[in-house]
Amino acid sequence: MDVPPSLIDWAGGPAAFRRLIDAFYDRVEADDLLSPLFPGGVHEEHRDHVTTWWIEVFGGAADYTARHGGYERMLAHHRGLGITADQRLRFATLMSLAADDAGLPADPEFRAAFMGYVEWGTRLAVHNSQPDADVVEQAPVPRWGWGVAPPYQP
Hints:
By secondary structure, the chain is mainly alpha-helical. The protein is built from seven helices and no strands.
């Protein structure tokens, strides 16, 4: 393999990430620590927008940027939420479980890259959600890759 596939392709394409986001938010809606962040539940529009974000981050089409406002819009959704360290950890844990629920690849290389983004993104969200946080106002949507462990191919 000359060039490793994108993470989105390795995972099974956009449909795999839609399964992931649905599995994740199904867990969130039943969770006492995270469900208060979504009064009334997690609606279809939110699930669609977040799926579009994750697809772009993991190497798919830049539709979140084109249709929903890119990084600045995602930042706006998190500002002022006051996300706690416990909520961050629960988010990361539920996302890992949702990856299993959705049947995403279980190979260590993919999961390391996937959870690397979850760790990075949740820690950034905690910071950006605090009152009077000093945030980066404009940035591109991150494009996540394999990092130091590309997929193993025998």
